[in-house]
Fold this protein.
Amino acid sequence: MRRWILRSQDPQLYYEIKDHQKELRRRFQDKFGYALIINPLLAKLEKIPGQAQAWMGIQAFESIREYQMFCYLLMFLEDKEIEEQFILSTLTEYVALCFPKGEVSWNSYQCRRQLIHVLQYAVKSGLIKVTDGDGEGFLRNEQQEVLYENSGISRYFVRNFMQDIMHFQEPEEFSRSEWFAMEEDRGIVRRQRIYRKLLLSCGVYPDTQKEKDEDFAYIRNYRGHIARDLEQLFPCELQVYSSAAFLVLDREHTIGNVFPQNHALHDLILLVHAALRKRVQANTLTLSANEVIEMEIDACERMVQKVIRANRSMLPKKYQEESISAKKLCEQLLSLMESYGFMEQREHTCLFFPVVAKRSAAYREEEA
């Protein structure tokens, strides 16, 4: 889903939302507890997940340091006026001072590369604009200057919290702070949390750490009511099973990132899903009580590499080149599957969630 709608980039959709803001505010506040922010720059729905998951991070970032740099960028922009310009060197000086002394040096190619990732994401998100220069030049030379312009929307990137978060030590504390001074497992709070899970997760599963997962029981007991509520807001269908619940979009509609797309790696993921189903049907893989597949990571990598080698001739040429080994392609594939929430890699095992059974495929024999 889109983080926000910028008036400068999509004025038609911005004004459509603005014209219907009263009804939209009522529906999203009631069903999800989401605030709708509309100002002269943007329209934004504060989409807070019902349960934070690892794949919900910023996919463009590859390290914790990039998140740190991004936070410092937001702090830097906080003191800038709308359309105020600044040069890259003023930002690099500010960021270096924010880190403990010596932790960041722009003589380091890795540090420069991380900052470029952050700036590219900021430009793509509309936080800043490139007025003159090329950020890629900073990779080659730390003295390279680029002129940026502050768009003024950076202050809306981080949501407002209902209490002081400076004493928080665990991620779960952010979730609890959302319903400050309210009982988390009663009434409207439970309903809003469940609706958020269904909307922002590719699948909702029972929590095996609990003797009885009350949230999942709520979905099963009130599936009809939940389905009517969500179908009034989105072109979707609620599918509920003994071990999973899915909110499935109609085929002709797309919201945000949709799987599968016309991409070779998506094709391979579908083929991996098919291989998993065959192994379960042949009893060479067993399902847990909540229908999760658990495999030793070595066995998982062998299976994925086998799928890659068996279908490599069907892939685009760039994936057939010898420079891209099956092992390297396997790493890319598992990382992508994890980013979509299809599976989770742990220290020695891989867990595949029930959603993998929803989508699988095979190449037609005449194409083989």
